[in-house]
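Quick one, tokens below:
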């Protein structure tokens, strides 16, 4: 379960942050379902911040952050019409309506309007915290700067481009872009708005939240029609289907599938949403997905080819990953020469060997995956290595893990990949330190760990004499290193690759007031560390244990001290709040349902804005319980502990 969770987080990062997924959506969902099944069988071992409870993140350093006022969640996935019908039968009542829409393969962008004026555009990010890209969004012609009515609303939609516009732009750019989705996502994060304006981007709305009158419309279709009336673009293809029988829904899905090849923009499936917005409140959410909606993902393109060789590689965590070298084959508009084989069990299960004829799949710019063996061929069965291909250490397979690991902390490939991870654009973004240069400096003994990056200036003369570098390249590296010292504390901590301490956990700690390295280390050393961390939304007891272990580990302490000495930012700079910090020192738990805070995360946001902490459970450290209707056991516990109980009306007066 721990290994599955770790792998899923890795693949979420590759998809949402790096725009370079390594596995298909279908494979990801298979892993997610396997973890969900294990969590049902062994609930004691379920992590509070399990990937089954989270959405992916596209947060990037260099952009101001914003906490979404509505949850920006993912959707559960189905992969066949039968699975979609099963979801509908379980979820939708007879004669209720389902809103059927294209699932656009683009980049999520959330627009915030006040009194009809666009004030903010934010990427999805973690689903709670996104990157502000307002200036870039204003260059997209389909996004209105002013609505036709002076309303307050949040509109969630997708940035995309048509195939024809992508082909034309890519031709002018000498074909450097892989596909429309990656160009759209990258354009949103461009540092210069005038460059974003050059790209043929479009935006379409598929969800709307009226802040001023949230209950004005009963149905999703009415709300989207209102969005269109305001001047927000929606798709004409959206179809409302009355669910009288599976046959009706199946027929409607078939109509969309028949139109798929003629659609002018990239789609990778359909979205099915219950139309009745009030019934949605009854169904609610899991922590990661709404129960009232799902997606039907289209099957990926497949191509048939032959395996020429099977190779294995070592990642920064020590994971051994095999891949197949293929006879070149055309797939989804690109020439494919390599495909992942996931792990040793996968190779054995499929019977892949050198000489096998296989089918490979690809979606967007993912590293293709071997899906099926058509003919095993006459080659010898592949024997997975027992020793690390980098350091020759004996490989280990702890417990029931599916992957083999190199556990040697000094394994060269692990050290090199940790350096690559730290320096890459989505992390510390150190110019000049790409993979090729890092490998050269590692080989020559200038780099072994991230601390060494900040000592390169001491060896600048020797670096300039290295073949392939030169003084100009060295200066670019040194300038990049200096610039990285200004990266915010949240980026520094997430770039170190410490187990469990990624962007999400970093944000949780910051939101709970632990905004400096000293605060983190003091917390880890305190007698109440487990209780304090476990009290935070998104951190469970197992994760808390790992965080404490990581922050107490001598090698990590030494590294953090060296980086602080090197001048990296070890305290998060907080924006000045105009609100009186009236809840400073208070710890609030929020439970039940509310008339004015839907979802109730909106109430938690108000608490944090006023300096308070929020927690997901009631304990002796909780000072206030905000209790809505059907508050349940948390209300009973708060009464027993003598905690101050606040009603919604009282809370609004406090605000």
């Amino acid at each position: 379960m721990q290994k599955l969770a770790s792998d899923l987080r890795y693949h979420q990062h590759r998809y949402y942050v790096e725009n370079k997924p390594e596995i298909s959506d279908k494979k990801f969902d298979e892993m997610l379902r396997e973890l969900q099944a294990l969590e049902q069988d062994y609930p004691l071992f379920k992590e509070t911040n399990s990937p089954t409870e989270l959405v992916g993140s596209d947060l990037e350093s260099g952009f101001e952050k914003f906490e979404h006022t509505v949850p920006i969640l993912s959707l559960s996935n189905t992969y066949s019409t039968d699975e979609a019908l099963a979801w509908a039968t379980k979820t939708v009542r007879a004669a209720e309506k389902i809103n059927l829409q294209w699932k656009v393969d683009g980049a999520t962008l959330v627009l915030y309007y006040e009194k009809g004026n666009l004030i903010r555009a934010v990427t999805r990010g973690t689903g709670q915290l996104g990157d502000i890209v307002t200036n870039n969004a204003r260059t997209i012609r389909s996004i209105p700067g002013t609505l036709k009515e002076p309303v307050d609303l949040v509109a969630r939609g997708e940035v995309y481009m048509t195939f024809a516009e992508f082909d034309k732009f890519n031709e002018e750019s000498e074909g450097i872009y892989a596909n429309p989705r990656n160009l759209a996502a990258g354009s949103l994060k461009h540092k210069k708005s005038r460059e974003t304006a050059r790209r043929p981007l479009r935006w379409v709305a598929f969800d709307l939240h009226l802040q001023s009158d949230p209950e004005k419309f009963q149905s999703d279709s009415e709300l989207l029609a209102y969005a269109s009336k305001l001047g927000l673009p929606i798709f004409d293809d959206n179809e409302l289907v009355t669910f009288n029988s599976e046959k009706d829904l199946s027929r409607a899905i078939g109509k969309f599938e028949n139109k798929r090849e003629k659609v002018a923009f990239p789609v990778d499936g359909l979205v099915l949403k219950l139309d009745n917005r009030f019934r949605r409140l009854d169904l609610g959410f899991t922590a990661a997905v709404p129960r009232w909606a799902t997606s039907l993902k289209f099957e990926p393109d497949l191509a048939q080819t032959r395996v020429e060789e099977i190779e294995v590689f070592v990642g920064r965590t020590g994971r051994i990953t095999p891949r197949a070298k293929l006879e070149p084959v055309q797939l989804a508009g690109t020439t494919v020469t390599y495909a992942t084989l996931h792990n040793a069990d996968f190779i054995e299960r499929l019977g892949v060997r050198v000489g096998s004829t296989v089918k490979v799949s690809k979606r967007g710019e993912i590293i293709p995956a071997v899906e099926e063996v058509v003919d095993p061929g006459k080659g010898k069965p592949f024997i997975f290595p027992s020793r690390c291909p980098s350091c020759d250490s004996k490989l280990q397979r702890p417990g029931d893990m599916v992957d083999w690991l190199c556990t040697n902390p000094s394994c060269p490939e692990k050290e090199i990949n940790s350096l690559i991870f730290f320096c890459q654009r989505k992390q510390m973004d150190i110019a000049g330190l790409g993979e090729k240069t890092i490998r050269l400096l590692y080989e020559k003994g200038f780099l072994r760990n991230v601390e060494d990056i900040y000592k390169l200036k001491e060896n600048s003369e020797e670096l300039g004499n290295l073949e392939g570098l030169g003084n100009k390249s060295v200066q670019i590296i040194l300038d990049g290193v200096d610039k990285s010292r200004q990266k915010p504390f949240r980026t520094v901590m997430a770039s170190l690759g410490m187990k469990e301490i990624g962007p999400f956990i970093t944000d949780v700690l910051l939101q709970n007031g632990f905004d400096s390295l000293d605060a983190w280390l003091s917390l880890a050393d305190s007698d109440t560390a487990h209780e304090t961390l476990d009290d935070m939304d998104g951190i469970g007891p197992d994760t808390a244990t790992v965080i404490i272990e990581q922050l107490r580990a001598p090698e990590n302490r030494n590294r953090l001290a060296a980086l602080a000495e090197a001048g990296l930012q070890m305290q998060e700079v907080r924006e000045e709040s105009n609100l009186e910090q009236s809840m400073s020192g208070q710890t609030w738990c929020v439970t039940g349902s509310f008339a004015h805070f839907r979802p109730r995360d909106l109430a938690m946001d108000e608490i944090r804005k006023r300096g308070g902490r929020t927690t997901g459970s009631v304990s002796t450290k909780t000072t206030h319980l905000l209790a809505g209707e059907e508050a349940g056991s948390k209300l009973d516990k708060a009464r027993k502990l003598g905690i101050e109980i606040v009603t919604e009306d009282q809370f609004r007066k406090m605000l």
